[in-house]
Design a protein that fits this description.
By secondary structure, the protein is an alpha/beta fold. It has ten helices and 14 strands. It is elongated. Residues 45-275 form the Solute-binding protein family 3/N-terminal domain.
């Protein structure tokens, strides 16, 4: 499952070439060829399968089209620059991401995918960041949430059928053991509805994936605040390559370099993500 919540998925596929600032800054000709790894689908460019429906990792700048922005999108551009090639985005619905990689429509998937056992059976992946549930609440109450049991007896919202909703449901036993009431959970089909429930005072808190929670707070500055350390980070987002592909070690080493030189940390800050959630190794 991609992410712990479900965003609307684009139904069509399109190819969108987006080279940062036109020509790659890493050089051209022989110099670029020397830096680029072997095995790219198209020489002189790295192609990324991406579903731009998950801010702040990947989304359209104007909401429905145009430039694709976000941490993952910009990290893809940074990877291209590191290799001295162009970045090309293959816009793909979520369920087409892995098939797109396997059929060589793209070189990598950099798009908020969990490194699940199921995926790792058919593809390689290098970790990029840790993910897990976070709590969103009004600024004057966010500080009250420091552990999962602080949600006991509270009105809590989460997206329907998400792992975040399941996590809140599991709190019933923990709350009972602590002599407290279970959280009063309400599930909504759309994430926008969960946010409105907290903004309108219908709920005390929203449980959402930490990366999405950061974006929601940035879009509601002064009205919502993130309590990041309530839950343990329990999953990892990764950058995926084909199983056993010669690109696998090259991608892993490139991301280590981008982490070491501070590039990824700067991108995290740009999109209101805590650099501490980066996990590149």
């Amino acid at each position: 499952m991609k992410k712990s919540l479900t965003f609307a998925v684009a139904a069509s596929s399109a190819v969108l070439a987006l080279a940062a600032c036109g020509a790659p800054s890493g050089g051209s000709g022989a110099a670029a060829a020397d830096k680029a790894p072997k095995g790219l689908v198209n020489a002189g460019q790295v192609t990324l399968c991406i579903d731009p429906e998950y801010p702040p990792l990947e989304y359209y700048a104007n909401g429905t089209g145009g430039d694709i922005v976000g941490f993952d999108a910009d990290a893809g551009r940074a990877l291209a620059k590191h290799w001295g090639v162009e970045a090309k985005f293959e816009v793909t619905a979520f369920d087409g991401l892995m098939p797109g990689l396997q059929s060589r429509r793209c070189d990598i998937i950099l798009g908020g995918l969990y490194m699940s056992e199921e995926r790792l059976q058919v593809a390689d992946a290098a970790p990029v960041m840790n993910a897990g549930p976070a709590v969103l609440a009004a600024p004057d109450t966010a500080a009250a949430f420091t552990s999962p049991t602080d949600l006991c007896g509270r009105s809590v919202v989460a997206q329907s059928a998400s792992s975040n909703a399941a996590r809140v449901q599991k709190l019933a036993e923990e709350c009972s053991a602590a002599g407290k009431e279970a959280p009063k959970l309400t599930e909504y089909p759309k994430t926008s509805e969960t946010v409105l429930a907290v903004l309108n005072g219908k709920a005390d808190a929203l449980v959402e994936t930490n990366v999405a929670a950061a974006y929601m707070a940035s879009q509601n500055e002064g009205k919502l605040e993130v309590a990041n350390k309530v839950f343990e980070t329990d999953t990892q987002f990764g950058v995926f390559t084909r199983k056993g592909d010669e690109l696998t070690p090259a991608v892993a080493e490139a991301f280590k370099a981008l982490h070491a030189d501070g590039t990824l940390a700067e991108l995290a800050k740009k999109y209101n993500l805590a650099p501490e959630i980066l996990d590149v190794r």
